[in-house]
């Protein structure tokens, strides 16, 4: 897996496919939906439950007598369910770092072979050739197993699709801690201060101050370099790397590719100083 993560030879192909996926005329609302912005975490792992569950169930039925029709139905459901799962996977993949994209492209290739085998299995089953359909189904499940292993590596070993900002919270002091003076914060502009050893993004609007973890939850970009859009309670910071948009007062994600909200911190002004603490 380490060799795959560091296989720079995959980058030319990966970069070309990334440009194609990012260039597709997909409306922003649909991209947000596929990233999982509407549900608060990545949508792809949710959607893959349908094909994976259907394919595994069809394999079990293929081992039992008198279940031909049910097994064929499940293969068809799995193939249909793969379509939205693939779409969500590609839009997520196109916003990943290079090392993750290397693993992701092999994950996608394995799953493409698996779905191809299941499509052929379905055709054979519908033609009445059950033995060949079952064999192709078992082959598809084996390759899908490899794809699932790679997907697991992406999620758990490479932390893809997780909120990269969430672990920062525990390093913020539990007690109220002075981050700086109110007067030192510029009005309606992002300002970064270090609290403990964590970079925190402050946004001051008059006497109101909000604070959020500065490292973007998507891929750790410095949000302090981002642009502020909107104003008042709807002011948002736009991530300088991939454009995720978070509302400054509460961290709510308005646009992906980040799927989850940006963690915010309780913030108050005491004796002219801005203080924050762990939530
Ligand atoms: S790092 Fe990707 S949107 Fe912020």
From TrEMBL:
It comes from the Bacteria. It holds the Pfam family Rieske. The lineage of its organism: Bacteria, Bacillati, Actinomycetota, Actinomycetes, Micromonosporales. Residues 176-276 form the Rieske domain. PROSITE patterns: RIESKE. This is Rieske domain-containing protein. SUPFAM superfamilies: ISP domain. PANTHER family: 3-PHENYLPROPIONATE_CINNAMIC ACID DIOXYGENASE FERREDOXIN SUBUNIT (PTHR21496:SF23), FERREDOXIN-RELATED (PTHR21496).
């Amino acid at each position: 897996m380490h060799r795959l993560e560091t296989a720079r030879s995959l980058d030319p192909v990966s970069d070309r496919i990334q440009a194609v996926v990012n260039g597709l005329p997909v409306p922003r609302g649909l991209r947000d939906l596929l990233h999982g912005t509407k549900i608060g975490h990545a949508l792809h792992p949710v959607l893959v439950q349908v094909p994976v569950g259907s394919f595994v169930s069809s394999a079990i039925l293929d081992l039992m007598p008198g279940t031909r029709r049910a097994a064929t139905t499940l293969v068809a459901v799995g193939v249909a369910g793969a379509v939205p799962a693939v779409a969500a996977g590609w839009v997520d993949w196109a916003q990943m770092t290079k090392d993750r994209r290397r693993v992701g492209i092999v994950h996608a290739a394995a799953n493409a072979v698996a779905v191809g085998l299941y499509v052929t299995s379905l055709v054979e089953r519908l033609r009445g050739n059950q033995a060949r359909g079952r064999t192709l189904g078992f082959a598809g499940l084996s390759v899908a197993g490899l794809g699932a292993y790679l997907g697991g590596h992406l999620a758990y070993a490479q932390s893809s699709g997780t909120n990269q900002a969430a672990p920062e919270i525990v390093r913020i002091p539990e007690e109220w801690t002075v981050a700086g003076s109110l007067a030192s914060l510029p009005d309606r502009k992002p300002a970064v201060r270090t609290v403990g050893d964590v970079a925190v993004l402050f946004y001051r609007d008059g006497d109101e101050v909000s604070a959020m973890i500065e490292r973007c939850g998507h891929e750790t970009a410095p949000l302090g370099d981002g642009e502020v859009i909107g104003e008042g309670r709807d002011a948002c910071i736009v991530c300088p790397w991939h454009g995720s948009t978070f509302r400054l007062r509460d961290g709510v994600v308005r646009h992906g590719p980040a799927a989850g909200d940006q963690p915010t911190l309780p913030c108050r002004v005491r004796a002219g100083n801005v203080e924050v603490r762990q939530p």
